[in-house]
Write a structure and sequence with these properties.
Blueprint (H helix, E strand, L loop, with lengths): L1 H26 L6 E5 L2 E7 L6 E8 L2 E6 L4 E5 L4 E4 L1 E7 L2 E6 L4 E6 L5 E6 L4 E10 L3 E3 L9 E4 L2 E6 L2 E2 L5 E5 L8 E5 L20 H20 L3 E2 L4 E2 L13 H13 L3 H14 L9 H4 L5 H20 L11 H7 L3 H13 L7 H14 L16 H6 L3 E4 L2 E4 L6 E3 H18 L2 H15 L8 E2 L1 E5 L2 E4 L3 E2 L1 H8 L7 E4 L1 H4 L4 E4 L3 E6 L3 E7 L5 E7 L6 E4 L2 E3 L12 E5 L4 E7 L4 E7 L1
Antiparallel strand pairs: 1-2, 2-3, 3-4, 4-11, 5-6, 5-11, 7-8, 8-9, 9-10, 10-17, 11-16, 12-13, 13-14, 14-17, 15-16, 18-19, 20-21, 22-24, 23-26, 24-25, 27-28, 28-31, 29-30, 30-36, 31-35, 32-33, 32-36, 34-35
Length: 603
């Protein structure tokens, strides 16, 4: 009897569970994506909650996947440069493919034949002149060097494909289609007629690392040119102003990037009187133009408030990305420093968990640069076993090398359609590859990074300026008329500890503890009774130090003398400080009586 009663109870529970599941299926038929296949073309679609259109759709064929969602809509631009952001609302299977209609009536058809040709055809309803689509490569596909016309090329299942009729867009992971005299023609994914070639690897552009003396000489030669441009004709040290060299009739004006580079290079050259002269002129004439970037050199620590507010806004944006489990946060420059030193530690740990599970294999060259920098930066905070970005090193051969073009014996990083190679991006990846080579002991990476940098330095003008970009066409290249000023390139080439930089105290003081400084060196000693920060800077020179994560103290000493806090400390020709207790930030002015000065905080 008891057994029968138990059986009836179990049957009753299972019956009601089945009814509940059936009701859910009936009421919510759109739960989960739906997969459709037609030949070699597949569509995965997620209907909107109200069954009105689709909130997510992926169309895959021949190793290429197009994505349409709120983050990646189909973007049409009309002749007035207005954007129309569209999502798919209907699709149906047609012979050998699919027909997709978007929210404004624009259509996209994709068809395949039996010879490996896939044809995509956009027909906008608006008076559009261009369309941008987000693309990714399937797991078994690899991106190859772009074609001469900026065409997307890839290898898929040992076959080389070229996308004709479309080109790489301005943004990473973007394909751009242009109307031709108002007519929209199909674009194609077709096997290349020539024999499939493997994706270019580092072995094909192998460059031995330069001798240290030769590398230092190349950098020093460019720095001499940059110094000539920063301090030569067209510069007024008394007013801390420069004249635009490209416009001789232009008036003198202050330029913060020029000031930072001038100060850093003058200090490196031990031209301390010149550095003090321009420092005084900036504080007297241009203090209101100083941002947080130049605070270590010129003061005006009030500018750090804007920096701190922008960090709070950035933090909220990153929190949303982490909640969405989006790995895109790791494509931001200096994201590791931000997570460990400016964000709650719990958020940093959650972000690392996302990184451990993320698939970065489809990163484009710009994203690969950020991931390699993340791996290098994370080594300052984590052990090698804890670092989740080790896989980023594989992207050098898989993603970065195919984007490097060798022309006339020089090397350039192609990120743009039509063979355009951005100089600032080339300098950035060059510096990262040099760091990577030093960290891994692989001189090949060092050599490629040095080649990217030196190739541009060899094009520098007598004032240190570089072409803003070069354009590669076949076996030739053309330099842009637009210039990259030496003050902007200096960050990547200067190799100068006087240039403003951050120093993390994460391993000593814990999360959120770091300094923004231009000191040659900072040393830190910590005990439960006191913290001692030793700053190294030339005698009789003044710099400003901003310390974050400073816990409350009972006494401060400079020059072995007790110092009282003064909110007007910057107005005096002496050292001083102010402590913002609400956010544990200390702003400090240090005038050096000795090369090494100690700041002591007693608890």
């Amino acid at each position: 009897m008891k057994t029968n009663a138990l059986a009836r109870a179990i049957f009753t529970v299972l019956f009601y569970l089945a009814v509940l599941v059936l009701l859910v299926v009936i009421q919510f038929p759109s739960f989960g994506p739906r997969l459709f296949q037609s030949g070699n073309i597949s569509i995965k679609a997620m209907p909107a909650q109200n069954e009105d259109g689709y909130r997510f759709m992926e169309i895959s064929a021949d190793g290429l996947k197009f994505t349409f969602s709120e983050d990646y809509p189909l973007v049409l631009r009309d002749s007035n440069a207005r954007e129309h952001r569209l999502l798919p609302e209907f699709f149906e299977e047609i012979e050998k493919g699919f027909f997709i209609r978007f929210s404004d009536g624009t259509s996209l058809s994709v068809l395949s034949d039996n010879e490996g040709l896939t044809v995509w055809n956009i027909q906008p309803k608006t008076n559009a002149v261009s369309a941008n689509i987000h693309y990714e490569l399937l797991r078994s596909a690899s991106q190859a060097a772009p074609g001469n016309e900026g065409a997307l090329r890839m290898t898929y299942r040992q076959t080389a494909y070229r996308i004709s009729g479309a080109r790489l867009g301005e943004n990473p992971g973007e394909l751009s289609i242009l109307a031709q005299r108002g007519v929209w023609k199909p674009f194609y994914a077709a096997p290349e007629l020539e024999e499939a070639k493997p994706v270019q690897s580092s072995a094909f552009i192998a460059q031995a690392a330069m001798e240290t003396s030769a590398w230092n000489k190349a950098i020093a030669s460019w720095r001499d040119k940059a110094w000539q441009g920063l301090s030569g004709p067209g510069f007024s040290i008394e007013n801390a102003e420069w004249k635009n060299r490209d416009r001789p009739d232009a008036a003198y004006s202050f330029d913060e990037a020029n000031f930072i580079a001038y100060m850093a290079e003058a200090m490196r050259r031990e031209m301390y009187d010149s550095a003090r002269t321009i420092q005084t002129a900036v504080k007297a004439n241009h203090a209101d133009k100083i941002s947080w970037l130049a605070v270590p050199l010129a003061g005006r620590t009030a500018a750090m408030s804007a920096f701190e507010e922008s960090n709070l806004a950035e933090l909220r944006a990153i929190e949303k990305q982490i909640q969405a489990r989006s790995a895109s946060i790791f494509y931001k420059s200096e994201i590791i420093h931000f997570l460990f030193d400016m964000a709650p530690y719990s958020l940093a740990k959650e972000a690392l968990n996302i990184a451990r599970q993320a698939d970065f294999s489809k990163a484009d060259p710009v994203q690969a640069i950020a991931l390699i920098e993340a791996w290098l930066d994370a080594k300052d905070y984590l052990s090698d076993d804890e670092n989740p970005f080790a896989r980023a090193v594989d992207l050098v051969d898989k993603t970065l090398i195919p984007a490097i073009r060798k022309v006339e014996g020089a090397f350039f990083l192609q990120l743009d359609a039509d063979g355009r190679c951005d100089s600032l991006s080339s300098l950035r990846i060059g510096k990262s590859l040099v760091r990577l080579g030093e960290s891994t002991g692989k001189s090949l990476y060092t050599g490629i990074g040095q080649s990217l940098i030196v190739s541009l330095l060899n094009m520098s003008e007598p004032d240190g300026s570089l072409p803003a970009y070069v354009t590669v066409k076949g076996d030739s290249l053309a330099k842009s008329q637009e210039k990259l000023q030496p003050s902007l390139a200096y960050k990547y080439i200067g190799d100068n500890s006087y240039y403003p930089h951050y120093i993390s105290f994460f391993k000593t003081l814990g999360p959120g503890s770091w300094a923004w400084t231009c000191a040659q060196e900072l040393q830190l000693e910590y005990s439960p009774e006191k913290t001692v920060i030793s700053a190294f800077y030339p005698i009789s020179s003044t710099h400003y130090l901003v310390l974050y994560g400073v816990k409350p103290f009972v006494k401060v000493q400079l020059y072995d003398i007790d110092y009282n806090m003064d909110p007007n400390f910057e107005n005096y020709n002496a050292s001083g400080y102010f402590f913002k207790r609400s956010s544990n930030v200390m702003y400090l002015k240090m005038r050096h009586k000795a090369k090494k000065e100690d700041l002591r905080l007693y608890y």
